[in-house]
From TrEMBL:
Record's keyword annotation contains DNA-binding: yes
Protein name: Transcriptional regulator, TetR family protein
Superkingdom of origin organism: Bacteria
Naturally occurring in which organism (per UniProt): Mycolicibacterium smegmatis (strain ATCC 700084 / mc(2)155)
Keywords in alphabetical order: DNA-binding
InterPro entries attached to this UniProt entry: Homeodomain-like_sf, HTH_TetR, Tet_transcr_reg_TetR-rel_C_sf, TetR_C_31
DNA-binding region(s) in UniProt: 31-50
Short name of one Pfam family: TetR_C_31
GO MF, one annotated term: DNA binding
Domain HTH tetR-type residue range list: 8-68
């Protein structure tokens, strides 16, 4: 007799399949049956674990947030001596340009519209937002230690706005910024209040 599937592991596997579906087909392509087929499980499995479309959507958002937190935790480790303070942030952002990070970025983009009308869905993504903001502020403070609090706040806002726009561009396939090293240089320029380096 086969080993019984761990329910939590099964839920994660179904959510991971749903993330791929969202990335490939958009919100309208996310159905219980399609998740079953994508995950390679018997028809009806997704409906057993997530009874409604809303329950499935909230679970997928939670899984995206869980994976985001794993990446964010790794990226917010204190920089090693001599390491560019922008390195962690640049690496975190550029993971959204390829592989599983790209798939998750596209899925997150698909979840953005329903979250604007669903407070519960929005709350899932808000859980780690302050930590993301704090990471940007820390980078600004490390790169411009002589800046006064008002300058730090302003540069943090500029950096957040730029990174948010870049993440959106990456999720749509824009590769104008093609490497973490290139992004590091741009972040350093923004944080220090100087002119941006030439791209290319």
């Amino acid at each position: 007799m086969g080993r019984k599937q761990n329910p939590e592991q099964r839920r994660r596997e179904l959510c991971d399949a749903a993330i791929r579906l969202l990335a490939d087909e958009g919100i309208k392509g996310l159905t219980h049956l399609k998740v079953d087929r994508t995950a390679g499980v018997p028809d009806g499995t997704t409906s057993f674990y997530f009874r409604t479309s809303s329950a499935l959507l909230h679970a997928v958002a939670g899984r995206v947030a869980e994976l985001d937190l794993q990446d964010l935790t790794a990226a917010t480790e204190p920089p090693a001596p001599g390491e560019n303070p922008a390195a962690g942030l640049a690496a975190l952002v550029m993971r959204a340009a390829d592989g599983p990070g790209f798939v998750r970025s596209r899925a997150r983009l698909e979840l953005a519209m329903p979250s604007s009308r669903d407070p519960g869905l929005a709350q899932v993504f808000a859980l780690h937002q302050q930590r993301f903001v704090d990471m940007h502020r820390d980078v600004v403070q490390r790169l411009s230690p002589d800046a006064d609090p008002a300058e730090v706040a302003e540069r943090t806002y500029v950096l957040l706005t730029f990174i948010s726009g870049l993440l959106l561009a990456l999720s749509r396939g824009d590769r104008t910024i093609g490497s973490a090293e290139q992004l590091e240089a741009i972040i350093c320029s923004l944080c220090r209040g100087g002119p941006q380096p030439e791209q290319g």
